[in-house]
Amino acid sequence: MLKTISIIDAKNHVDEEVKIGVWLTNKRSSGKIAFLQLRDGTAFFQGVVVKNNVSEEVFTLAKEVKQEESLYVTGTIHEDQRSPFGYEIELSGIEKVGESENYPISPKKHGVDFLMDHRHLWLRSKRQFAVMKIRNEVIRATYEFFNKEGFIKIDAPILTGSAPEGTTELFHTKYFDKDAYLSQSGQLYEEAGAMAYGKVFSFGPTFRAEKSKTRRHLIEFWMIEPEMAFMHQEESLEVQEKYIAFLVQSVIDNCTYELGILERDINVLKRYTELPFPRISYDEAVEMLQKSGEFPDVEWGEDFGSPEETYLAEHFSKPVFVINYPKAIKPFYMKPHPTREDVVICADLLAPEGYGEIIGGSERATDPEFLEAQIEKAGLNKDDYQWYLDLRRYGSVPHSGFGLGLERAITWITGEEHIREAIPFPRLLNRIYP
Ligand code: 4AD
Ligand code: MG
């Protein structure tokens, strides 16, 4: 019996005869030789079929096999210096498993809408494979980091009655005879978790009914939200930069092949593992923008758009923290500044290369009266937040936390142009198929 292996394990089977379950992605053949491009979900490599070395039946099959047909192939692994993967297989046998007639995605260029309509098949392509592998590594490294740092995972509910990030972008649904929303953020529940278990994090889907159609916005995205008791904002920034550096280093260490497929320069990524990241205040950021001459309309008090974020981040070769934004443009729960009325103790982490905000976080307000007033000011129903105020009534402590947008981080690390590529089945404005 031949040993069945995965393509990724080819390096351990050089000059051995093996069997692999594969799909055909492309092929090229002449009268004497056929080159089959094969994938099995672990890697892509080439199968070579030499007419003189195989039966007529096998060579005919090699010439006729169609794109995305599934096969069992048998053959001998060889080193192949010319391919980025480093190995190929000289085939001796081909057995067809599943047919594929007129596969819709051909190697020629297709438009974005066509590809998104065929996302369930488009995922099989090489770039998409590489991005999904890196997504998987970022998720794996996230669990490793927070476990190593002594956090425990506390899962926040998806169906909630609270609206931490404001009421304008909520997905409304019925919860029997009551109203409910899809979670915008697990933060408030993580705050309860932090008061119970010290250092906690959540990792789950979050929803924003944002009518924005940009390359940075998803309607449904995944967020990692750590929350830490007995922690001020400055220490939280240290956790954040350490976490980002750990993610980038893990991808560099474990995804060399995938970064190669994406042609992502590892030397650029290495810069992002050097700590600390710079910190500038919102005030300084506004001044930089005004002085640049490129943003004549920027005024203190406004939120930054993507051109402003891109400009700011371009001035640093690493991610940059912009700290202490105006109170008026940030959510109700942020801690007021001790000596200034107009700003709160918070930070956004802006990624370089035009990827914008990847983390938003803050120290949290601890005074229950202040918070109750804030909740009312935000137009929220204070009865729905009594449980949240209890966290301040019973053993309140300084605490801080943040949220990393998983897909924003992946888009940046992989160097993809659009956030839709960072999630298997993107929910975009007006797109819920497939
Ligand atoms: O800045 P946001 O809205 O912050 C919060 O939700 C806080 N409750 C987090 C916390 O302190 N626990 O969102 C956090 C991050 C952003 O920095 C961004 O990376 C990502 O979530 N994000 C989005 N990603 C994709 N599509 C969208 N529409 C996003 N909105 C936010
Ligand atoms: Mg934000």
UniProtKB/TrEMBL annotation:
Report the record's Gene Ontology biological process terms.
asparaginyl-tRNA aminoacylation
Q: Give yes or no: UniProt keyword Acetylation.
A: no
Q: What class of enzyme is it?
A: ligase
Instruction: Please state the protein's primary subcellular location.
Output: cytoplasm
Report which superkingdom the organism of origin falls in: Bacteria
- Which keywords does UniProt give here? Aminoacyl-tRNA synthetase, ATP-binding, Cytoplasm, Ligase, Nucleotide-binding, Protein biosynthesis
Domain named Aminoacyl-transfer RNA synthetases class-II family profile is located at 132-434
List GO terms (cellular component aspect).
cytoplasm
Q: What EC identifiers does the entry list?
A: 6.1.1.22
* Any one GO molecular function term: catalytic activity, acting on a protein
Subcellular location, record wording: Cytoplasm
Its quaternary organisation is: Homodimer.
Q: Which family does it belong to?
A: Belongs to the class-II aminoacyl-tRNA synthetase family.
Q: What is this protein called?
A: Asparagine--tRNA ligase
> What is the source species?
Liquorilactobacillus hordei DSM 19519
Q: Which gene encodes it?
A: asnS
